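Lab meeting notes turned into a lecture example. A postdoc, R.K., suggested we walk through two folding results consecutively so the class can see how the record format repeats. The first protein's sequence and structure tokens come next.
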Amino acid sequence: MSDAKKINPMLKMALELGPVIVFFAAYLKLREETFLIGGTPYDGFIVVTAGFIPLMMVSTGILWKLTGHLSKMQIATLVLVVLFGGLSVWLNDDRFFKMKPTMIYLLFGGALGVGLLRGQSYLKYVMEEMLPLQQEGWMILTRRLTGFFILLAVLNEVIWRTQSTDTWVYFKTFGLSAAIFVFFMTQGSIFQKYALEEKKD
């Protein structure tokens, strides 16, 4: 059982998605600007990234304070945001921050893949309370999600290396979220076939 405290779902969503929405809005406003800081010119993307890092840290900290719990996925995401975002700001190079989704999805896909090699579904440990499935269902879903995460990592690399920064920001803000939503919506047959029936007293 999870020790996480229940909080208002809308507040939880605001804390999780708020930083991304603020990043997107700030980028649209500052993308054409250049800022001279300490004698070094920084474009709007770098400045927005510099603001996104502490905002992400604060929102994650508030979420932890309110719930008393952070998932491994949330912790890994925050660490990679600080690491790759910090490198982009420090080196004044947007490529590091653009690589962040690639690293996140490779990390998640790799972790699930290691579990599969051991005959286990690590996804089950993360989502069991939300999706009670039979073991076979968890293994099928984990295999599919592993491949999907790797596909997203490759897609992010293709987008940021071949398209404009504007295209990548739209892709990161809307495309990745939509892709994950569509993925789970198309797994209905697994949820129906392998759902655990509730035990009756």
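The second example is placed directly after the first for contrast:
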Amino acid sequence: MTDTATVAASLDDPWIGTEPPTDAAGWLARAREVADILATDAVDRDNANGTPFAEVRVLKQSGLVTLLGPTVHGGGGQTWDTAYRVIREVARGDGSIGQLLGYHYLWAWAARLVATDEQIAAVEELYTVGNLLFGGAVNPRDSDLTVTEDGDQLVFTGRKSFSTGGQVSDLTVLEGVLDGTDTHIFAIVPTAQPGIVFAGDWDNLGQRLTESGSVEITGVRVDWASAAGFVGKVFQPLTYNTLNVPAIQLVFANFYLGIAQGALETATAYTRSRSRAWPYGGDDKQRASDEWYILEGYGQLQSKLWADEALIDRAGAEISAVLHDARENLTERRRGEIAVQVAAAKLRIVEDGLETTTKVFELTGARASANSVGLDIFWRNLRTHSLHDPLPYKKREVGQYVLLGEVPEPSWYT
């Protein structure tokens, strides 16, 4: 990381001496403060492509890392409805850090998704008291890690080509298949250990500071008692277990929306202060901000993002309600209906977000393409992560529900 690559690296804790927020509005305001800090030098940090230790420090200092943690352990005690909006706010300032925070929330909740009551209590106390950040070596397009038994322990071995969180995480979620069976096992382990080696090979077009490179897992041991959701070495299944995918798909939609909002905010500020009116149109204006096509363009983009926000918030409220309800209450049909809402929200923000992050160049002018302006970071970030799974399949899921009344079967991407 260069000396000028991050404002965050030189900041003392800006929240020392302040009380943590106590309600959703306060946490959203805190997230906006974090976003403003990150936005100051997001382009420089992206260019430096360093490991975001300082940025994660800001997340921890702000209290956002323990937003979902129990209040009895010093956490925020907030709901997923608030967490989704917080992710969005942080992504407005830096899409990479919004992604890190969103993945952290999902993996911090993974214990509630699949673990026993005793395991949930232990994990939530551990990460909340320690203010610890989660990463995850769970990439379904790779071969699963191999899990072997050694007495009362399980041993994880293998390689994952993507592992978001990487070196900046304190805890890593592992997933593998028990050797000789088709039984999948999740476990949470400390990141800093000899058996977890990150290659540092994440060098993509966008989301460059997410620490999403490959990782080698060699002989990482956990007690059988730490295998999430297993009692007497037998998994206890619930429909609730399958909420991990729609929950994280909505994480995606929210940081996509935050990226698009950041692009529009940056572009409008540029147009107001720096764009020049076009002098050859026949209805010449003194300011670019008075030109009809500029006004129309921004109006179109903003109206689409407002509509996307409403759709995403609706899905967030729906899934938050079931995530915080008793796990036994969720039916397969209800789970499928929520997955369809999430798919609809995701497909809309991908298409509208990509339009926004491209169209802003037409509305700001040729000089806004300068690397120093950095408008390209928004398109690069959104374009990169929105390739996570093909959008046509999301459209098909919504179409099957509307036309045939069918809900998608749970999978690694639905």
